[in-house]
């Protein structure tokens, strides 16, 4: 089934997605919600917080993490705190994340996957990498990939360096495509002209590992929430 695509003007995108998220979270106390970080979701998270949104009844799962030292400004857990959690009056009901400081990273990935698989995620928000990645599932990733340690694509390393001062990460840990695609519902967040071409490829090109986001076309409940610039090449 094709994802439904909802497009809003750039200046309204954050307000619109923030309001949708608030409504969705309020309508399902106890939901299991997987959240991404990066530049894209920030206006939506700011709006969620400004409206008085709360995750106090929500179990939050962080989508991925860079292998960087604790507290590094480009770490996904730090970005999530900065962009969302620190702006909320109460912490989430639970906050789960991949611990990149664990002694055995492969065992940590297995622990996280088992936790996520206990009960399907109710809603997963995703950003779209300029190279078509989802989480840190880079081009070449198989559809049934598990949660694992990954070597980052050079584009991702460059992009991640922009998230915070200092060294760029070379490795990351990510929820695998298998767990992502097992989510009951998925929202793909896409903004900016620089994402227009990859969005076109993901939504209209062949399904396969070259563009991991293309696998979303095989999921029954995906909504693409785009701004006009990102949707500019799509024909409706
Ligand atoms: P961005 O990253 O939101 O910073 O563009 C998206 C991604 O790489 O998944």
Please describe what this structure looks like:
It is a single chain. The chain has helices at residues 10-27, 42-50, 76-83, 105-117, 154-161, 177-181, 196-204, and strands spanning 4-8, 32-35, 59-62, 64-66, 94-96, 123-127, 148-151, 171-174, 186-190, 222-227. The chain is α/β, with parallel strands linked by helices. The protein has a 7-stranded parallel β-sheet. Helix 2 (42-50) links the parallel strand 2 (32-35) and strand 3 (59-62). The chain is globular. The protein binds 2-phosphoglycolic acid (PGA). 2-phosphoglycolic acid is lined by residues 38-40, 127-129.
Strand-helix topology:
Blueprint: E1 4-8, H1 10-27, E2 32-35, H2 42-50, E3 59-62, E4 64-66, H3 76-83, E5 94-96, H4 105-117, E6 123-127, E7 148-151, H5 154-161, E8 171-174, H6 177-181, E9 186-190, H7 196-204, E10 222-227
Parallel strand pairs: 1-10, 2-3, 2-6, 3-5, 6-9, 9-10
Antiparallel strand pairs: 4-8, 7-8
Helix pairs in contact: 1-2
This protein binds 2-phosphoglycolic acid.
The site of 2-phosphoglycolic acid has 6 residues, from loops.
Features:
7 helices, globular, seven-stranded parallel beta sheet, 236 residues, alpha/beta, 30% helix, binds 2-phosphoglycolic acid, three-stranded antiparallel beta sheet
Cα end-to-end separation: 16 Å
- From the alpha carbons, calculate the radius of gyration and give it in angstroms: 16 Å
Return the structural class: alpha/beta
Distinct ligand kinds: 2-phosphoglycolic acid
What general form does the structure show?
globular
Number of helices: 7
- Taking pLDDT < 50 over at least 5 consecutive residues as the criterion, the unreliable ranges are none
């Amino acid at each position: 089934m094709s994802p439904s695509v909802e497009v809003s003007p750039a200046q309204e995108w954050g307000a619109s997605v923030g309001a949708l998220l608030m409504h969705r979270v309020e309508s399902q106390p106890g939901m299991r919600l997987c959240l991404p970080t990066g530049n894209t979701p920030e206006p939506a998270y700011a709006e969620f917080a400004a409206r008085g949104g709360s995750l106090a009844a929500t179990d939050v799962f962080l989508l991925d993490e860079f292998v960087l030292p604790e507290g590094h400004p480009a770490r996904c857990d730090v970005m999530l705190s900065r962009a969302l959690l620190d702006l909320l009056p109460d912490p989430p009901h639970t906050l789960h994340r991949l611990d990149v400081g664990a002694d055995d990273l492969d065992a940590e990935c297995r622990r996280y996957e088992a936790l996520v698989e206990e009960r399907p995620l109710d809603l997963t928000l995703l950003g779209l990498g300029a190279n078509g990645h989802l989480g840190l599932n880079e081009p070449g990733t198989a559809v049934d990939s598990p949660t694992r340690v990954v070597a980052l694509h050079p584009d991702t390393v460059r992009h991640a360096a922009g998230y915070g001062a200092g060294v760029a990460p070379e490795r990351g840990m990510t929820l695998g495509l298998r767990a992502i695609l097992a989510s009951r519902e998925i929202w793909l967040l896409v903004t900016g002209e620089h994402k227009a071409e990859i969005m076109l490829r993901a939504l209209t090109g062949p399904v396969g590992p070259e563009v991991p986001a293309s696998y979303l076309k095989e999921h029954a409940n995906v909504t693409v929430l785009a701004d006009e610039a990102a949707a500019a090449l799509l024909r409706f």
